[in-house]
Amino acid sequence: MNERANESKIVKEALVKSGLSDVSVTHGHGTAWGWLHVKATVAKPSACTCHLAHKEPDGYYQPLCNLCKTLLSTKEHDATELIIKTTGRYRGDYSGNTNVTIRFKE
Ligand SMILES: [Zn+2]
Q1: Distance (Å) from CA 63 to ligand 1 centroid
Q2: Which of 56, 67, 83, 85 has the fewest CB atoms within 10 Å, counting from its CB?
Q3: Which residues have their alpha-adjacent CB atom under 5 A from ion ligand 1?
Q4: Residues of the chain with pLDDT > 70: what percent?
C-alpha cells in the first residue's frame, strides 16, 4: 500500500470512528498534490429549525438555522483537528493542507 493510500485509510477510519458517515477521502493532483480532501455527512439535529429559513437583516438568505450552522462548523473543525493529529500533517497556514466539507445526510 503506498503512502497516500495508507493515509486515506487511516483518516477514513478515524473519521468514521468519530461518528461521521459517508466519509470520502481523496488526495489532490498536480500542483495540489499535497492536499487532502475529505467529505462526510452527519445527521441533522432534532431541534433544527431550518424549515423557518429566513433572510438576514442585510438581505442575505440564510438556509441553515444557527444550530445547524454551528454543528457543521464544529464538526468540520473537529474533523480537521483529528486529521492533523492522526496523520502528523504540518499544520502550517492551511490546516495541514486539509479541506473538510461536512453536509447533512439527505
Ligand atoms: Zn437546522
Answers
A1: 8
A2: 56
A3: 48, 50, 65, 68
A4: 96
Ligand 1 center to residue 64 CA distance, Å? Answer: 5
User: Above 90 in pLDDT, residue 1?
Assistant: no
Q: What is the pTM of this model?
A: 0.86
SS3 for the chain, per residue? CCHHHHHHHHHHHHHHHCCCEEEEEEECCHHHCCCEEEEEEECCCCCCCHHHCEECCCCCEECCCHHHHHHHHHHHHHHHHHHHHHHCCCCCCCHHHEEEEEEECC
